[in-house]
Design goal:
alpha+beta, 7 helices, 9 strands, disordered N terminus
Length: about 190
């Protein structure tokens, strides 16, 4: 697979619904993976091992992965911190019992493709490769530092819609958590 220029995947998603994006990222074994390969509904959840809000979602993410993957969908954890090694990510996954596969995105290619800015933040693509949702997992964290029992489950709804070939409303919600832009600063040092 060839690596596309930064704007090309974004334009493929925004301007040509149904054109499956192509993107190469590294898995934890250093192998190149195109997470869109296979033509199945795909969900990405951006996480950081040092983000307490992302870590609180670990049980929910494991539950969502079990449900989604049993219905021919795929959920990926995406680690955008360039400083997190594969060993650090493996330890994080083990500590929080995260069962889904993980990708490293140190150059923020997938971050830019979906417009992610927070961890945890999710993006869901239907089987044709169209992004149908980006935003929070649920409304458990209405603001940073405050949490409650969730009353909405946007990511679960978007994943079900992707499996059923439906659109999602709202298609974008605001995630609360740790900023991905902070990582770009640490990568420049």
């Amino acid at each position: 697979m060839r690596r596309l220029p930064v704007l090309a995947p974004l334009l493929a998603v925004l301007l040509a619904p149904g054109c499956r994006p192509s993107l190469e990222l590294a898995d934890l074994d250093g192998r190149t993976v195109d997470p869109f390969e296979g033509g199945e509904p795909t969900a990405f959840v951006f996480v950081r091992s040092d983000c307490p809000i992302a870590n609180r979602y670990a049980p929910e993410l494991t539950r969502l992965d079990a449900s989604f993957s049993s219905k021919s969908g795929r959920l990926w954890l995406v680690y955008p911190d360039p400083m997190e090694t594969a060993a650090t990510i493996r330890a994080h996954k083990e500590e929080y019992s995260l069962t889904m596969p993980a990708l490293r995105d140190p150059q923020h290619d997938l971050v830019r493709l979906v417009g992610a800015s927070i961890t945890p933040e999710a993006a869901v693509f239907d089987a044709s490769g169209t992004m149908i949702y980006r935003g929070r997992i649920d409304d458990r964290f209405p603001t940073y530092g405050a949490w409650r029992a969730p009353t909405t489950r946007e990511l679960a709804g978007a994943m079900e819609a992707a499996l059923d070939g439906r659109s999602v409303e709202p298609a974008v919600t605001t995630a609360v958590g740790c900023f991905i832009s902070d990582l770009e600063l640490s990568a420049e040092r």
